[in-house]
Amino acid sequence: MKHIAITIASAAALGMSTPVFASADGSCHFHGKKPAAEATVVSCAVQRKDVLVTSGKIDTAWKAVRQEKIEQVEGKKGAEWKVTFKDPAAKDKTKETLYMFFTVPGNFIAANFTGQ
């Protein structure tokens, strides 16, 4: 009896959940080791920046800031993409530059204001 109740509850939960599908807008998850093109990484960085703004993790002023620089750097676990956004109008000068890090294939690693 207990197993039947669990099965019914599980089926009901699955039936009420909303399926999630990847779309062109959310295509910033990559498999394999093939290096991503710079344009792909910049596009993913802009998407990630917008998510950070929407979630309130960074100021809304960052929404209008464009990518300034992209380069490959040596990270703790090997090569990484480092994408830089600069907001010269930032009130807090310690948060004038936003750095975003991605794996060489293009997966997001981290974002910060220190560049480390």
Number of contiguous helices: 2
* Element-by-element helix/strand order: HHEEEE
Q: What is the C-alpha radius of gyration, as a whole number of Å?
A: 19 Å
Number of domains: 1
- Runs in which pLDDT lies below 50 for 5 or more consecutive residues are 11-25
> How far from one another are the termini?
56 Å
The proportion of strand residues reads 25-35%
Question: How is the topology of this model organized?
Answer:
Elements: H1 2-16, H2 38-54, E1 67-75, E2 78-86, E3 97-103, E4 108-112
Antiparallel strand pairs: 1-2, 2-3, 3-4
Task: Please characterize this protein's 3D structure.
This protein has 116 residues and is of the alpha+beta class. It is built from 2 helices and 4 strands. It has a 4-stranded antiparallel sheet, covered by helices on one side. Helix content is 28%, strand content 26%. About 13% of the residues have low confidence. A hairpin with a 2-residue loop joins strand 1 and strand 2. The chain starts with a helix and ends with a strand. The protein has one domain.
Offer a concise description of the structure.
The chain has 116 residues and is α+β, with helices and mostly antiparallel strands.
Structural features:
116 residues; 2 helices; 28% helix; 26% strand; globular
